[in-house]
UniProtKB/TrEMBL annotation:
It is found in: Membrane. Its main location: membrane. This is C-type cytochrome biogenesis protein CcsB. Keywords: Cytochrome c-type biogenesis, Membrane, Transmembrane, Transmembrane helix. The gene is ccsB.
Length: 343
């Protein structure tokens, strides 16, 4: 069937529009991030003035109640905000946080339209090359994040999620872009949407989990209320280490079975196409290693003595292996899956 060039053009336009929307969302999320730093400093200043005994005890023993503020945050010469000024500052931050959330959803809708139009233009499921594959992973990652990031305290995570998404989209939309066309014969199978879409969903949720573990490591290095220096200022608006660890863990719980199901479906497709379920092809091997690492993370996370940063490092390694599989295995290593590269 010939490609519908009109729908293909609309798809490309929607992709570019979604990229711009995500970029605007990143800018707004950074404004929100900076404003939240000011809100936190103002709140800690007010609490230290209202309860000076906390600062005194903490300064003397190092064990004071510093859950939400740190000694040295407040300069004695800084004017204390009035209730109205503090409320206005907090409302301003909330406004930018709300706009970030709205733009993320808008970008996801436009991005999803790009994916659907690409499929309609080629009369096939839009997962036939690396450009389409990366686009699908990114839109699923944004949707997953938008579902998780509903409460105000989680909106400080948006910049950390949008930056890698924008990098992936830019690389996919430039260096890996492929014109709308029928897929190669090896991919002309009903297993394509079943297998690849499942793997895409697992990878998308895995991105959220891995980034949460990265932020968790930053948070335990810069505990809430005891931040110091440049990295302390960067970490200040983030949720607590416990909440970030819980997000990484719950996301990995979903990633493991979804990615495992995708591998099993791929094995069934391999048996139908190549006459064997498993052949230790480079992509099969890398995918299996990623799955094993996610299983190891969940096991370590539930094992005494491994629940701290050790387990988080395993989750980050799983994400790195998945990214290695996405780019190096697909584009560099020769194997039965080499057609998944540039067409």
């Amino acid at each position: 069937m010939p490609v519908n060039q009109t729908l293909s053009t609309f798809s490309d336009t929607a992709f570019q529009t979604a990229f711009v929307i995500y970029l605007l969302a990143l800018v707004l999320s950074l404004v929100f991030y900076v404003k939240m730093q000011g809100v936190i400093d103002a709140r800690r200043a007010r609490e230290d003035i209202a309860h000076p005994e906390y600062v005194a005890v903490g300064a003397g023993t190092g064990t004071g109640d510093l859950t939400d503020r740190s000694i040295g945050d407040v300069n004695a010469t800084d004017p204390l905000l009035t209730d109205e000024q503090y409320a206005a500052q907090e409302a301003s931050a909330d406004k930018f946080g709300g706009m970030t959330q709205a733009l993320a959803w808008l970008g996801a809708v436009v991005h999803l339209m790009s994916v659907v139009l690409r499929g309609l233009a080629t009369d096939r499921f839009p997962l036939g090359n690396m450009y389409e594959y990366i686009s699908m992973i990114c839109v699923l990652a944004v949707i997953s994040a938008a579902i998780v990031i509903q409460r105000r305290e989680w909106r400080s995570v948006w910049p950390w999620l949008l930056v890698p998404i924008l990098v992936l989209l830019f690389f996919g939309g430039t260096s890996l872009y492929s014109n709308s066309a029928p897929v190669v014969p090896a991919l002309q199978s009903y297993w394509l949407p079943v297998h690849v879409s499942t793997v895409s969903l697992g990878a998308a949720i895995g991105i959220v989990s891995g980034i949460a573990s990265l932020l968790y490591l930053l948070r335990i290095w810069q505990p809430k209320g005891r931040e110091r220096g440049f990295f302390g200022a960067v970490a200040k608006p983030l949720p607590s280490a416990k909440k970030l660890d819980a997000l990484a863990y719950k996301s990995a719980i979903i990633t493991l079975p979804v990615l495992g199901l995708g591998i099993v479906l791929g094995a069934i497709w391999a048996e139908a196409s190549w006459g064997r379920f498993w052949g230790w092809d480079p992509k099969e091997t890398a995918s299996f290693i990623s799955w094993v690492l996610y299983a190891a993370y969940l096991h370590a996370r539930a094992t005494a003595g491994w629940r701290d940063h050790k387990a988080a490092w395993i989750n980050i390694l799983a994400l790195a292996t998945m990214i290695f599989n996405l780019f190096f295995i697909n584009l560099v290593v020769s194997g039965l899956h080499s057609y998944a590269g540039l067409n």
